[in-house]
Design brief:
The structure is a single chain. The protein is of the alpha/beta class and 387 residues long. It folds into two domains: 207 residues, Rossmann fold; 165 residues, Rossmann fold (3-Layer(aba) Sandwich), CATH 3.40.50. It is 42% helix and 16% strand. The strands form two sheets. The chain has a seven-stranded parallel beta sheet with strand order 3-2-1-4-5-6-7, with helices on both faces. Strands 10-9-8-11-12-13 form a six-stranded parallel beta sheet, with helices on both faces. β6, α7 and β7 form a beta-alpha-beta unit. The longest helix is centred in the last third of the chain and has 21 residues.
């Protein structure tokens, strides 16, 4: 079977590309990124370069171009892929930039899989609109034309692949038949022994958080929780390159806090995790959240919310602490539990690492394949019905 995938940014495209290649399929990847930017992309996968200027500019300069430019660039990428797409049996396109190319693939007789890492656009936009209002920020709505493109992608795709039940349940019931859940789990490094740095007396107990978009990642709730706690001999590390000073609620807390440190750049996230004793991902909206699993793999007890897809792979209270989103009081209580209880930290760390090792022992991409294989079988059934 010939499979074509398309993505401007590398994102998680190597996971489906590698999985399908290992199944013996002929895989081609249409992308603006060069091979080295994909994590462990298999040598036999063909790359077809397609320009997408916004991510290229951002990667080269760090400059984030305005959203209208980003949207136009996404559409342009989609149309270029459509024009260059070679005959295939299955087309795997990234949401928001796969309408024209998905249609082109269907005209060739291929099935169209839409890869959507986030919840339904309307559910996500509603949530983010409310968050911006709470923070006193102006929210820029998706243009009607761009939202319409996304709705058309959902309607016209033969199957929609999402990374979590959280994302799947945001879609209307009428679409659930063609929605499949495949957690974005390839492999995380679980080789280091669990950290026991909380037993050291030479530095403060350190909570860490990793996230790009401070609104979606719930940073305001983390900082509110931190102010409630006022833990002695403790600090909070924020790994983000976002402009936090532009959000008044965050700026004000950061000015008052002397025990909060912002880490703008870290070449290897393992170095960041090594500075931490526990990890917090207070996300408001996270279709998956790979940082959570990476932190756990480095031996950190972790806290997140019910809106983090990766938390679905772990048992609450046994392998991870899970709190309601947008609830600084509940978040503060969970953080204090981890801060004060060595027994809890050791139990969470040990159980979570066993859970990850169990998943990995079944083989790389095995968990992801458990969601993809039923989708492929369902698409094959559609082909037979159409034939």
């Amino acid at each position: 079977m010939k499979i074509a995938l398309a993505t401007g940014r590398p994102a998680h495209a190597a996971i489906p590309a590698n999985l399908m290649h290992r199944r013996g399929e002929q895989v081609a990847l249409y992308t603006a990124a060069y091979r080295a930017r994909f994590r462990a992309l298999e040598p036999g996968i063909q790359l077809h370069w397609v320009p997408q200027w916004v991510p290229m500019v951002h990667f080269a300069t760090g400059v984030q171009l305005p959203r209208p430019v980003q949207r136009a660039d996404t559409v342009a990428f989609d149309h270029i892929v459509a024009a260059r797409l070679q005959p295939c049996d299955l087309y795997w396109g990234s949401a928001t930039g796969a309408l024209a190319s998905g249609r082109a693939a269907q005209r060739m007789g291929a099935r169209f899989v839409l890869d959507r890492a986030c919840p339904h656009v309307d559910a996500q936009q509603s949530l983010l609109r409310d968050e911006h209002e709470r923070l006193g920020l102006r929210y820029t709505e998706e243009p009607d034309w761009f939202r319409s493109r996304q709705l058309a992608e959902y309607a016209e795709a033969d199957a929609i692949l999402v990374p979590s039940r959280y994302s799947a349940e945001s879609f209307p019931q009428s679409m659930r038949q063609k929605i499949f859940v495949a957690p974005l789990f390839g492999r995380v490094a679980t080789t280091p022994p669990p950290q026991v740095s909380w037993q050291r007396a030479d530095r403060p107990f350190t909570f860490g958080m990793v996230g790009g978009n401070p609104v979606r990642k719930g940073l305001v709730y983390l900082l509110e929780a931190w102010e409630q706690l006022r833990l002695p001999n403790a600090r909070l590390l924020l790994r983000t390159d976002a402009s936090l000073e532009k959000i008044p609620a965050l700026r004000d807390v950061l000015r008052r806090a002397t025990d909060v440190e912002r880490v703008e750049y870290c070449r290897d996230l393992r170095d960041f995790y090594a500075r931490c004793d526990a990890f917090v991902l207070p996300t408001v909206d996270d279709g998956f959240g790979m940082a959570l699993l990476e932190a756990i793999a480095q031996g950190l007890p972790a806290i997140t919310t019910t809106r983090c897809g990766a938390a679905e792979l772990l048992r609450a209270e046994e392998e991870i602490l899970v709190v309601p989103p947008q609830n600084p009081t509940a978040l503060a209580a969970a953080m204090e539990r981890i801060y004060r209880s060595v027994e809890l930290r050791e139990r969470l760390c040990g159980n979570a690492r066993v859970a990850l090792e169990k998943i990995e022992s079944s083989g790389e991409y095995a968990l992801y394949a458990q969601g993809v294989e039923p989708m492929l079988a369902w698409l094959e059934l559609q082909n037979r019905s159409a034939g």
